[in-house]
Design brief:
Elements (H helix, E strand, L loop, with lengths): L2 H21 L6 E7 L18 H8 L2 E7 L5 H10 L10 H7 L3 E6 L8 H5 L12 E3 L10 E5 L4 E3 L16 E5 L7 H16 L4 E6 L7 E4 H4 L28 E2 L9 H31 L6 E7 L4 E2 L4 E3 L5 H4 E2 L1 E4 L6 E8 L3 H9 L13 H5 L9 E4 L5 E5 L3 E6 L4 E5 L17 H17 L6
Parallel strand pairs: 1-8, 1-11, 2-16, 3-4, 3-8, 7-9
Antiparallel strand pairs: 2-14, 2-15, 5-6, 5-7, 10-13, 11-15, 12-13, 17-18, 18-19, 19-20
Helix pairs in contact: 2-8, 6-8
């Protein structure tokens, strides 16, 4: 073999090795973790909504793995955030995710609301809420005036509309969840804008070291405050309200009713103001999306997409009049189903229809980053399933009411809810996605109920929620 041929073989072999190496995804060293507050999946365009404008989340979703059936375990901010950050169905046993990463060499930082904060009180005062300081290398709060923001104020269940800054519903007041403000400014005074700015600053400062940046945006949690340009996209007159039926006639037992309903709150007297609630919610979702876009643009500009995983989620969903119900702490789909979008370099974008739980995020990230999983973690990594579709993942997702007053499991086809007092609900989610027909008394579903009851009992035992 002459010298020229040998040289060509060596060059070809070297090129093949280099090409093979280049085709492998870069090692992921960073996590950008963004959590919204009180955001239900069904209002996002990337989850099928035809009204709300969320172009930045839509773009992220097009590049990511979108979990169509992700469910929270806790039904309000505190329990859900404690659960997902510790990967525990209930409580805070063990080491939390950011502290675990910090102990293994990551820079970890909180911007805004990650663990529970009282909104609006802790935002107005710029304080930590129920933060766990040991989680973080650094932490930053984002203050805002909230319902005291200058602009067009409304307390919609009281039918009050004013520009005056006096006598506004705020921290600890019983009507604060029905407040909206069309702010006079450009939004730069709002907490989510400040959180986006701080996140962008930190991305620039820490781009050359492994980081876990956790950014907690407070919208669309009440009060629904956003600049006028966002409200203009959702004229309340054009809003169609959810189909309204008496929850008792739907077969929903009293144990399944939330604290606030159309029948026990004056919001029920004002259908137009219910539409305004939707308009304000949409406006603050779009406003929140704008801040996410600013953050993601900076990730692109800095060239971090090749080694940074991006996780977007919400702590739980929200009722906006469905079944005549308002707010959270409820086991129906509008509360338990949440958005979960995971951009993972090296994994092709697609949609996942299998059920997933928020407790699964912690072990998925530790596996992705090559960090050991603590024994206290109860969630299950979804990475093996994403890499090999033949892997089994979950049969059901478990959610639980405060005080163990009730539980639900969501399977591919059914939602089954069982309350402490023995009442129950069953919905065929393929035929009845809005949960308008409770099948619990239907004899045709006796076997299904028995099967789901066993599944729920098994899940509760696995989660250490009942005695074995």
């Amino acid at each position: 073999m002459n010298f020229t041929v040998k040289l060509l073989i060596i060059i070809s072999f070297a090129f093949a090795i280099e090409s093979s190496y280049a085709a492998q995804p870069n090692k992921i060293k960073n996590v950008l973790f963004i959590i919204a507050d009180d955001l239900k999946a069904s209002v996002l365009a990337c989850y099928g909504d035809k009204i709300c404008q969320t172009p930045n989340l839509d773009k992220l979703a097009s590049q990511s793995i979108v979990f169509d059936r992700a469910y929270c375990q806790g039904l309000s901010c505190g329990p859900s955030r404690t659960s997902l950050m510790h990967s525990r169905y209930l409580g805070s046993e063990g080491i939390n995710l950011p502290e675990h990463l910090k102990n293994n060499g990551w820079y970890t930082v909180r911007v805004g609301k990650i663990y529970h904060m009282r909104v609006p009180y802790d935002i107005i005062h710029g304080i930590d809420g129920q933060d766990i300081p040991s989680s973080w290398t650094e932490k930053f709060n984002s203050k805002g005036a909230e319902s005291h923001t200058p602009g067009d104020y409304a307390c919609l269940n009281k039918n009050i509309f004013t520009k005056s800054l006096k006598n506004r519903e705020s921290s600890g007041m019983k009507n604060r969840m029905f407040v909206s403000v069309i702010s006079e400014g450009d939004g730069s005074d709002q907490p989510d804008v400040k959180s986006a700015e701080k996140t962008i600053e930190l991305l620039n400062q820490r781009k050359n070291e492994p980081f876990f940046i956790a950014t907690g945006l407070v919208r669309p949690h009440y009060p629904n405050v956003a600049p006028k340009e966002f409200f203009q996209n959702y004229p309340w007159e054009k809003i169609d309200l959810p189909e309204l039926r008496n929850p008792t006639s739907l077969g929903i037992p009293a144990a399944g009713h939330p604290r606030i309903t159309n029948s026990n709150n004056s919001i029920g007297k004002y259908p137009d103001n219910q539409k305004r609630m939707w308009s304000a919610y949409y406006a603050t979702v779009e406003f929140m999306d704008r801040q996410i876009g600013r953050i993601l643009d900076e990730v692109d500009r800095l060239g971090l997409k090749s080694n940074t995983a991006i996780i977007f989620l919400s702590d739980h969903g929200y009722h906006l009049g469905e079944h005549g119900f308002w707010q959270k702490n409820n086991l129906h789909e509008e509360v338990t189903r949440v958005p979960l979008i995971a951009y993972i370099p090296g994994l092709a974008p697609r949609r996942i229809n299998e059920v997933t739980e928020l407790v699964d995020i912690y072990p998925s990230l530790t596996e992705l980053l090559g960090v050991y999983k603590p024994k206290t973690v109860q969630g299950k990594s979804f990475l093996p399933f994403l890499k090999n579709k033949t892997e089994d993942f979950r049969n059901s997702a478990l959610s639980l009411m405060p005080g163990k007053k009730g539980y639900s499991i969501r399977t591919e086809d059914f939602s089954y809810i069982r309350y402490q007092n023995g009442a129950a609900e069953l919905y065929n989610m393929n035929k009845d996605p809005k949960q308008l027909v409770n099948l619990i008394q239907n004899p045709e579903h006796k076997q299904t109920i028995s099967k789901l009851d066993r599944e729920l009992n098994t899940r509760l035992k696995e989660a250490d929620l009942v005695n074995n």
